[in-house]
Automatic annotation (TrEMBL):
Record SUPFAM superfamilies: RING/U-box (SSF57850)
Family: Belongs to the RING-box family.
Subcellular location: Nucleus
Predominant cellular place of this UniProt entry's protein: nucleus
Protein name according to UniProt: Anaphase-promoting complex subunit 11
Top-level taxonomic group: Eukaryota
Keywords annotated in UniProt: Cell cycle, Cell division, Ligase, Metal-binding, Mitosis, Nucleus, Ubl conjugation pathway, Zinc, Zinc-finger
PANTHER family: RING BOX (PTHR11210)
Organism: Coemansia spiralis
Length: 85
């Protein structure tokens, strides 16, 4: 049996490497909405990417990192949080 290699990789597309359903892992609100502390989505409520590839509302992450339980770790994978530059 001979398989034909199709060009599937080229059509797979590209998208943000964001968590399931494109929701913030902390507040569970979609990334196209703002965090619970804000009223208007957009530049005033930016997203923040970590080097572990997880994405959160910046406000959610800052609030998380400010809590004692966070231990400065990513809330999704518990690796030390490093903001991607
Ligand atoms: Zn959030
Ligand atoms: Zn916000
Ligand atoms: Zn992470």
């Amino acid at each position: 049996m001979k398989l034909t290699i199709t060009d599937w990789r080229a059509v797979a597309g590209w998208k943000w490497d964001v968590p399931d359903d494109d929701v913030c892992g902390i507040c569970r609100a979609p990334f196209d909405a703002c965090c619970p502390g804000c009223k208007i989505p957009g530049d005033d409520c930016p997203l923040i990417w970590g080097e572990c590839s997880h994405v959160f509302h910046m406000h959610c992450l800052l609030k998380w990192l400010g809590s004692e339980t966070s231990q400065q770790q990513c809330p999704m994978d518990r690796r030390p949080w490093v903001t991607a530059s």
